[in-house]
Amino acid sequence: MVDPTVTTLRVESKTRRADGVVTLQLADPLGRRLADWAPGAHVDLVLPQGVTRQYSLCGDRWDAYSYRVGVLREPDGRGGSAYVHDELWPGDLVGVGAPRNNFNLLPSEQYLFVAGGIGITPILPMIAQADLLGADWRLLYGGRSRGSMAFLDELEVHGDRVRVHPQDEAGLLPLHEFLDEPRAGVKVYCCGPAPLLDAMEAACAGWPRYALRIERFVAAHEGPPALEGPFEVELARTGATVTVSPGESVLDAVRTVGADTLSSCRQGICGTCETPVLAGVPDHRDSLLDDDARALGDCMYICVSRSRTPRLVLDL
Ligand code: FES
Q1: 7 Cα to the center of ligand 1, angstroms
Q2: Ligand 1, residues 303, 305, 314: which to mutate, most atoms within 8 A of Cβ?
Q3: What's the per-residue H, E or C state across the chain?
Q4: Which atom of ligand 1 lies closest to the CA of 262?
Q5: Where is each FAD-binding FR-type domain found (predicted)?
Q6: What separation in Å is there between the alpha carbon of 158 and the centre of ligand 1?
Q7: Which ligand 1 atom is at minimum distance from the Cα of 268?
Q8: Residue of 263, 287, 288, 314 to test ligand 1 pocket, by largest number of atoms within 8 Å of CB
């Protein structure tokens, strides 16, 4: 189905920022203001052939008339980033979804930011906000080499708050040294490739619960589903019931009985398909909900999550 939140924006400029990284500046062709967003937010870019990709907003959140996204060329990707790099140019139009935020910057007086590669993009507006609010913050930024690390020029103004750590010069990120001892009241934000996020989760094991917040661009690996066999899903608004077979997603199953549910990543990382749960116990398999939200069980991401009980009732 067509996503009503997608608007058509024009590429105002395209700028090379590092090896394999470009930024796009996007604006409404008629100069209208854009939907508001906060640090940590991402948008969908809707590319030809219905390909949709999520990119963090990395520009000035107080600029109401343009968005900036940073795009890494992914040689093993499914073609979205190659299209942006090779075929999208200033003046072209592109579908852009409304900003969504699964990686909010929570209030704190002290932040530690860790970014790996293109994971710097959601961190940039967080730094701007932390700076504006006078918070104490530091950034550890790693990448394969200096040439592959975008926005080093923009980060220079922050002096020794920013520690740049190219792997070919300095090895792996010194996470334990950077984090130091666990401390209450410090918020730790990390974005980057999965091995870095896994290493951060291990390094922050002794920190207060929820001190660490991460954003995954690739879904975390989940074990086998709680129920091996099929289960039933009832759509409370229409009364329809559908059986979800083992190889099928809840999203696909409910669409066969007429549910108008939006989706984007289909990996449990973007938040588009969030659905309220009225009865039954979901088997959460997304990369978005924390342990408390999972235990609450009142919503689920139906592109990946399944059921622990023979029947689920959803507010659809
Ligand atoms: S479609 Fe992205 S979380 Fe379900």
Answers
A1: 19
A2: 303
A3: CCCCCCEEEEEEEEEEEECCEEEEEEECCCCCCCCCCCCCEEEEEECHHHCEEEEEECCCCCCCCCEEEEEECCCCCCCHHHHHHHHCCCCCEEEECCCEECCCCCCCCEEEEEEEHHHHHHHHHHHHHHHHCCCEEEEEEEECCHHHCCCHHHHHHHHHHEEEEEHHHHCCCCHHHHHCCCCCCEEEEEECCHHHHHHHHHHCCCCCCCCEEEECCCCCCCCCCCCCCCEEEEECCCCCEEEECCCCCHHHHHHCCCCCCCCCCCCCCCCCCEEEEEECCEECCCCCCCHHHHHHCCEEECCCCEECCCEEEECC
A4: 1
A5: 4-106
A6: 35
A7: 3
A8: 263
Q: Which domains does the chain have, with CATH numbers?
A: 7-100 (2.40.30.10), 110-215 (3.40.50.80), 231-314 (3.10.20.30)
Contact residues of ligand 1, CB 6 A cut-off: 263-266, 268-273, 286, 301, 303
